[in-house]
Amino acid sequence: MEEPLTGEELRTLLSQLGLSAESLVRKNEPEFAAHFEGKVLNDEEWIAALVAYPMLLQRPILIQGGKAFIGRPPEKILSLLQV
Predict the structure, then answer these.
(1) C-alpha distances out from residue 82 to 18, 31, 61, 73, 75, Å
(2) pTM for the whole thing?
(3) Which domains are present in the chain?
(4) Which of 71, 41, 52 is nearest to 4 (CA)?
(5) Cα–Cα dist 74/60, whole Å
(6) Distance separating alpha carbons of residues 47 and 23, to the nearest angstrom
(7) C-alpha closest to that of 73 among 57, 53, 59, 54
(8) Around Cβ 29, how many Cβ atoms within 10 Å?
(9) How far is the C-alpha of 66 from the C-alpha of 16, rounded, in Å?
(10) 3-state secondary structure string, the chain?
C-alpha cells in the first residue's frame, strides 16, 4: 500500500497467479462501490484501476519460486510455506 505496484508489476503478478485482473479486485471496498460497481472492464482497465486504487488489490499475495498465491484465508500461506 505504501509503494503501490506499477502496471507492469501487476501484469507480471497476474501471469504468476494465472488469474484475470478482475479476480484481484476487493469488491467489498468503498472505493470499488464508488468507482467501479456495475462496470464491465477489461484486464488493462482493471490494472489501471488497481494502480490508481491500490487498496482494491487482494492481499496478502505470496510469491515463491516464480509462482504467486493469494493468501486468503491466511492459513493458506502457512500451508504453502510448509511445502
Answers:
(1) 22, 35, 16, 15, 11
(2) 0.83
(3) 7-81 (3.40.30.10)
(4) 52
(5) 8
(6) 11
(7) 59
(8) 15
(9) 7
(10) CCCCCCHHHHHHHHHHHCCCHHHHECCCCHHHHHHCCCCCCCHHHHHHHHHHCHHHECCCEEEECCEEEECCCHHHHHHHHCC
Q: What's the pLDDT tens digit per position in 59-76?
A: 888 888 888 888 777 676
What are phi and psi for residue 27, nearest 5 degrees?
A: -85, 0
34-52, pLDDT tens digit by residue?
999 999 999 999 999 999 9
Q: How far apart are the first and last CA of the chain?
A: 28
